[in-house]
Amino acid sequence: MNYQFDFEALLPYWQSFLQGAITTIQMTIVAVAIGLVIGVLCAIARRSAYPWLRLVVGIYIEIVRNTPFIVQIFFIFFGLSSMGLTMPVFFASVFAMVINVGAYTAEIVRAGMEAVHPSQIEAAEALGLSRFQIYRDIILMPSIERVYPALTSQFILMMLSTSITSQISAEELTGVANNIQSYTFRSFETYIVIAAIYLVITYLLRFGFHAIALAIFPRRRRLGTPL
Asked: Which part of the chain is the ABC transmembrane type-1 domain (predicted)?
């Protein structure tokens, strides 16, 4: 093997790498923020007393969780455009990510809700808490705290999945790398660089999620329980 590494050929494109990383982070933050809200609402709906609501939400979750993410992106970007509903690449990418992360978040949060013992709800009712207070303080927040590690892992996985949006020419990190390697013909070096950037972004997100957990879960912070 006589391959000669040449990372200097990539130096003129450092701004492109940076912009790709920024776009990846932006897509992830928007998708996670909106997807979390949708996921929580769907988790609540899955426990609803209305069968039709449980059915509708269940169908959405099953479709998303049992189809490839790339098919979902193609359906939104190419499928809808063939019906006359076109949208920018960035918007289509984030839209697909929101739909995907919302479905997975719903099941994760629902699992946390199911773990709440009925006696805790009965005790809250005996204390005279309103239905909203019971859902917020007894069911929802403890549930999110319980499944927080699984949630953050899913969000990081979603960040890594932004690479799939390069298939519709999204200018995120992998899309930028594909262009750069076609210009420089240094594929090996290019993908080594973006692998390192993905690692950096992953650890930055982990640090951010840990900081958020310290802020919103004071009980764990006081007890020193791992987040």
From this structure: 21-209
